[in-house]
Amino acid sequence: MRLLPPLVLLLLAPFVGEYLLGNMPPRPLEAAVAFVPLALLYGGGALLVREVARRLGRGYPTMLGLAVAYGLIEEGIVIQTLFNRDFLGLGLLEHGWVPALGTSIVWTPYVVGIHVVWSILVPIVLTEHLFPAHAATPWLRLPGSIGAGLVYLAGMVVIGLGTYVTYGFVAPAPQLVAVVVLAVACVVAALLLPRPKQRDGRAPGPAQVLVVALLCGSAHVLSQYLPSSVPAPVATLVMALAVGTAALVLLRGARRPGWTSVHTLSAVAGALLTYAWTGFVVQVGVHGTTPAGLAAQMVYVALAGALLALAWRQLPPAQAPRQ
User: What 3 state SS string does the chain have?
Assistant: First the structure.
């Protein structure tokens, strides 16, 4: 039973981060084969983020900073979508391409942002609510935490090598160094965050939290699908406004009296609902309209709904603030 929560997180991170997103091919065998390396990378990364934060007695703000570092490493170092203009042949970097930076001011905040929320934070918070008795404590002893880091490293190597074999692309050294420096800075900042203080005022209602998470999450995801005629700075501004609004409501609200596990799980529900419907948009955009793809997406949505319902049943009758 002690190892069940980390095992669930290992499986949940790739499920939410890639499958519910709609990224996976509609062919079941390909989707199943891809799960193992994705579990190493996503699951190992999420587990490492969670164990580092909880072992240091930290909460979700610290996990958020570590999640930004994760997103930068995956997209900038492992698969290098931040710099590879030929990745998947979808022209991911064309909207907002800045030659001086060698990346896109639209794609970069978009893809790092979805990793922060859906690849790392949502799986962690959902798993902690599935196992509330152990939500605020480390799940692994020190050797297990080191093992989580090795799992993550293995995922980086496997997926990184596979991506290189596919594209034969390596970003210029200055870009790779810049990513590493930014990632290290995020880790340091996350670990040095001051302990959050309680704020005056009342926490927003759980329904408001859910709606804000759903609307802001949807705005962030759909910013990638704005017509190319929309100036890149406008698309970036849409994402900035979505992130800023969510941060204002959720991070500030969590420090106010009355914030409970119901509020936190409501935010997760809003994020899962975002992927539940935008996943169909992504599936069609990446793989086209196929009955198999749409059917698979429906199965993923149903599974996410079942997990959310199970987490909701774990909520204690008497709620206490948790952050």
Answer: CCCHHHHHHHHHHHHHHHHCCCCCCCCHHHHHHHHHHHHHHHHHHHHHHHHHHHHCCCCHHHHHHHHHHHHHHHHHHHCCCCCCCCHHHCCCCCCCEECCCCEECCHHHHHHHHHHHHHHHHHHHHHHHHCHHHCCCCCCCHHHHHHHHHHHHHHHHHHHHHHHHHHCCCCCHHHHHHHHHHHHHHHHHHHHCCCCCCCCCCCCCHHHHHHHHHHHHHHHHHHHHCCCCCCHHHHHHHHHHHHHHHHHHHHHHCCCCCCCHHHHHHHHHHHHHHHHHHHHHHHHHHHCCCHHHHHHHHHHHHHHHHHHHHHHHCCCCCCCCCC
How high does pLDDT run on average in the chain?
93
In the chain, where the domains are located: 4-313
The reported pLDDT for the residue numbered 323 is: 45
Provide the pLDDT confidence category of residue 320 given band limits of 50, 70 and 90.
very low
pLDDT computed for residue 266 by the predictor: 97
Write down the pTM of the prediction: 0.94
Predicted confidence at residue 199, as pLDDT, reads 79
